[in-house]
Amino acid sequence: MTRGPIAVALDAPDLSTMTAWAVAVGPHVSTLKVGLESYLRDGDAAVIAARTASAETTGLPCQLFLDLKLHDIHATVAGAARSVARLAPDFLTVHASGGADMVAAAVRELPQTRIVAVTVLTSLTPGDLVRMGLLPPGADANDVRSLAERLAIESVAAGARAVVCSPEEVAGIRAALRDQLPDLAGDTVLITPGVRPAGAELADQRRVATPVEALNRGADLLVIGRPITEAADPAAAAAAIVQEIADDRGR
Ligand code: C5P
Q1: Catalytic residues
Q2: How far apart are CA 226 and CA 12, in angstroms?
Q3: Each residue of 203-220: pLDDT tens digit?
Q4: Which ligand 1 atom is the nearest neighbour of the CA of 121?
Q5: Which atom of ligand 1 is nearest to the CA of 36?
Q6: What are all long-range contacts of 45-51, with beta carbons under 8 Å and residues at least 24 apart?
Q7: Nearest CA to ligand 1 atom 8
Q8: Is the pLDDT of residue 170 over 70?
Q9: Is 9's C-beta closer than 6 angstroms to any atom of ligand 1?
Q10: CA of 204 to the centre of ligand 1 (A)
């Protein structure tokens, strides 16, 4: 069975639901994402359960993506990174808007982990960013793109080895990295949430694409949560997306 380039967001209401999802989807996907909802409630047990559950069916655990979206002064982020070092996550997220020094602090503490810089949340529209004063009045999707590109470049130059962006920004970020940081571009994993199979509910996501579109625009890893975890059969939903990706690649 091939594991698809998908990180399933295990945003579960309790540990046993999270574990059941990990058992169901583990054989189909490369990565399991434990985020704030599970980690703040269940702590290390959530990470250990995700790893163990995904190894049960195939013998090989999925990659572990710890999505804590750290955003604080450098010393605090460094301390937070040290606090999760024992879990040896494959990925750990920080907000790019915390600045290059904050990103570098996390990188220094966890040299074996891919520090992931989150650029602009996929739930935000250009209008939201204007209202918050982060973009000038009249700003549109192009301005969001250039903001995301600047945040990505800053973070990768500071040592981040992965970037989270919307499917709308992924091609621009890939091009900007190749242009401005050619030595680092090849080893930078571009991760896109805001992925919805055709016809799926958008929920709170705004800047979205289908899995195949996101990969064709240059994403390396897709974060998908509710379209899989809220399906009647999460294993079948994950398998169907992986099959759709394989069919497109075989074309
Ligand atoms: O597919 P779904 O919308 O359920 O996925 C939501 C997951 O993606 C959540 O775990 C959320 O934290 C994560 N995420 C996001 N937007 C970002 C970064 C991460 O939606 N910019």
Answers
A1: 69
A2: 10
A3: 676 667 899 999 999 999
A4: 21
A5: 12
A6: 45/15, 46/10, 46/15, 46/18, 47/87, 47/89, 49/15, 49/18, 49/19, 49/22, 50/10, 50/18, 50/19, 50/22
A7: 193
A8: yes
A9: yes
A10: 9
**Within 13 Å of residue 218, how many CA atoms lie on the same side as its CB?**
20
Number of domains comprising the chain: 1
Alpha carbon 204 to its chain centroid, in Å, reads: 16
Flag the least confident range among 68-77, 152-161, 165-174: 165-174
State the average pLDDT over residues 39-50.
97
> Ligand 1, from 95, 151, 223: best to mutate by most atoms within 8 Å of Cβ?
223
CA of 6 to the centre of ligand 1 (A): 12
Distance in Å, CA 225 to ligand 1 centroid: 7
> Which domain, by its residues, includes 204?
4-249
Residue 116, domain CATH: 3.20.20.70
Q: What's this model's pTM, rounded to 2 decimal places?
A: 0.94
pLDDT value at 33 more than 70: yes
The answer to whether the beta carbons of residues 38 and 10 sit under 8 Å apart is yes
Could you tell me if the CB of 169 is within 6 A of ligand 1? no
Checking if the pLDDT of 139 tops 70, the result is: yes
| Distance (Å) from CA 193 to ligand 1 centroid | 5
- The pLDDT value recorded for residue 207 is 65
- pLDDT per residue over 89-128, tens digit each? 999 999 999 999 999 999 999 999 999 999 999 889 999 9
